[in-house]
Amino acid sequence: MLRLSLLGALLIGGALACTQKTTTTTTTTPPPATASPAPATAPGEIPPLDPGQIVNGVDLPGMDMRSFIPTAPDPALCQRACEEDPRCLAFSYVRPGASGVNARCWLKEGIPTANLDDCCHSGVVRTEPAGQTLDDAGEDGLARANYVGGDIRGFDLEAPDPALCRAACEAEEACVGFTYVRPGFQSSAPRCWLKHTLGEPRGDACCLSGTVERP
Predict the structure, then answer these.
(1) Number of domains in the chain
(2) Under 8 Å between Cβ of 212 and 177
(3) Distance CA 100, CA 83 (A)
(4) N or C: lower Cβ tally within 10 Å for the chain?
(5) Residue 132 has pLDDT above 80, yes or no
(6) Which helix (DSSP H) or strand (DSSP E) does residue 69 occupy?
């Protein structure tokens, strides 16, 4: 009887052990945090103005040569105007509504100290004035020059075509020469100046000039 009791106790204990639930603990390791890329400049720091680039949120106040309203609200038009003027080193494009209804370009004869300002896009074109001579070939065989003085009259052209200026000179008996002014230099439109005498010639990217042969 004692053996049977011991055997029964062992069987009951084994059954209880088999019915116990085993708990497994799983440890989950979180993925490593991904670092954000560092900004090109720290907050409040002025980005570098490398030649050929247009930088947003930067103004170059002062050292102005001239300003004009571009034909479209595009800072690349200011950059192009500066590139075409050998005296221009830098520019600032002012957004529409920042200082007037229209956008505006300011061309600079130097490189002013830059300021952070959401009004503007700015850039540097060159670090010193480009050489410019009367021998530089312009378009259609015209000199890249301005004949100063000797004016008969000046007027806006319907299209940016120096041939229209030449034709107007040929049609006017007293005209011996002309200067075509590119858009954006004296106004937003191209301009033509007819000459009764040829004034002092000056190398200038603003203009294309020529003469008319008379019998």
Answers:
(1) 2
(2) yes
(3) 25
(4) C
(5) no
(6) none
